[in-house]
Amino acid sequence: MMHSTSSKDDVVEGNSRNDTATAQLVEQGVEFHKVLGRTVATAYLKEHHVPTEVIYRILSSSAARRQSPPSRTPPRC
Residue 5 in 3-state DSSP? Predict the structure, then answer.
């Protein structure tokens, strides 16, 4: 029997991105898409097990992507 590694804590009401590891992979995939093209970005995201529907949404149009939340790192003085 297979057990899911996700929990209800991974899903936030409103479909908000709460999985920081996947968010980082997606951001890297978007950068690859900008610089190296769709084929490289798709291969990278598939290799890292990003769901196909997410890959399609983020690479099909920049308007379809959710904006990344602002960095929570305090500004340097």
Answer: coil
Q: Per the structure block, which two tokens stand in for 8? A: 């209800």
Length of the chain: 77
16-38 pLDDT per residue, tens = 556 889 899 999 999 999 999 99
Q: What is the pLDDT of residues 36-77, one digit of tens each?
A: 999 999 999 999 999 999 999 999 875 545 556 555 555 566
CA nearest neighbour of 48 among 64, 26, 33? 26
Question: What is the rounded distance in angstroms from the CA atom of residue 38 to the CA atom of residue 11?
Answer: 28
Q: Where are the alpha helices (DSSP H) in 1-77?
A: 20-36, 38-47, 52-60
